[in-house]
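Hi V.,

You were right to ask for the full record rather than a summary. Here it is.
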Amino acid sequence: MFTPDEQTRTPDYDGLDRQLASLFEGERNFIANAAQFSAFVYQTLAALNWAGFYMAHGEELVLGPFQGKVACVRIPFGRGVCGTTAVQRATVVVDDVHAFPGHIACDSASNSEIVIPVIKDGKLLGVFDVDSPETHRFSAADKLGLEKLVARFVACTDF
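Predicted structure:
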């Protein structure tokens, strides 16, 4: 059961998934879908200051479509939250990025972060990174919901 604050913060991820399916209908282009997905998440979830992709290229992540301030362009695997997610191939939720060893501060206003791996057919394609200026912004419900939305993006997109 959610606290009253979590109820107002946690969107209807099933409804958002249906909206995404409609948004992606008839379009499979990676750049178009990644740009739309980043904008959709950025505009739909409360208290965000960045949402976007880093794509796997060799042993590093390279900046892809996003919404927010300019960002770090390249992140080595294993460095920061995004690089850790790439190595672990599992979602990483950080309540306070300033306490995360090796955190990369692309925007000093970011205080919490969730990063979901983008995997298709067992291959890591990149990560989807979401930052918030608030600490403890991302709940277990956000983790499950964002993983569902990333899965929809992967299913609807050609890489």
